[in-house]
Design a protein that fits this description.
Helix content: 55-70%
Bound molecules: zinc ion
Number of helices: 8
Number of domains: 2
Low-confidence stretches: none
Largest sheet: 3 strands, antiparallel
Radius of gyration: 35 Å
Mean pLDDT: 87
Shape: rod-shaped
Strand content: under 5%
Length: 207
């Protein structure tokens, strides 16, 4: 689990949004000139090279720069997480509230559920693709039968022609439903489609 998953909010983001980099710099003894610059503490600086903009710092001589967290990391040679902890304590921000056991369990459960849902969707999509192709094949077959056995000159149509026409009528709305890609509607019709598929398979065996 990533570190920001163990806290009620993303501590890095929150710390950065709650602090003004100029105040932080001054708090850690970096003297800001009235032009908003400072002597860079990260190299042997004689003219103020450290600039501040958009709540970030940048030294145009040695290249060091970043957020308040980067600033504290560089001043004290500490990790991002330790810098965050230090800022949280020094400025009394009350940001790092670890999740309790119950909240961590809830988070893990949610991840599990997400995976489960993704698996269901995946198998649904596979089923949909296979079924759609299956019905389409059958549709073409019945269409061919219908065409080749089309009654001519007011003849009585054959029984197979009727059968094919009848099945085309049933398969067409199923194909339309699949083509709509409306997952909810398709799921609504899921058991009907499945039963119909079985019925057709039985019929094919009889033919
Ligand atoms: Zn510098």
């Amino acid at each position: 689990m990533k570190i920001d998953n163990l806290f009620t909010t993303n501590p890095f983001k929150e710390i950065k949004s709650k602090l003004n980099i100029l105040e932080v710099a001054e708090y850690y003894k970096i003297k800001i000139t009235n032009k908003g610059k400072a002597i860079c503490p990260f190299h042997d600086d004689h003219h103020p090279s450290l600039c501040f903009k958009n709540n970030r710092f940048k030294c145009f001589a040695c290249g060091v720069g970043g957020s308040v967290i980067d600033l504290v990391m560089n001043i004290f040679y500490i990790s991002a997480f330790d810098a965050t902890k230090k800022l949280n304590e020094d400025f009394n921000l009350g940001v790092l509230k670890p999740l309790n056991k119950y909240e961590i369990q809830k988070l893990a459960k949610r991840k599990e559920n997400e995976e489960e849902i993704n698996n269901i969707i995946k198998s649904f999509e596979t089923w949909k693709k296979d079924s759609e192709q299956w019905f389409l094949k059958l549709f073409k077959l019945f269409r061919n039968i219908q065409k080749s056995l089309a009654p001519k000159n007011f003849q009585q149509p054959s029984e197979i022609w009727f059968l094919a026409s009848n099945y085309i009528e049933h398969i067409e709305p199923i194909l339309e439903l699949f083509a709509s890609n409306d997952r909810e509607q398709i799921l609504d019709g899921y058991s009907n489609i499945k039963n119909y598929k079985f019925k057709l398979i039985e019929l094919m065996e009889e033919l």
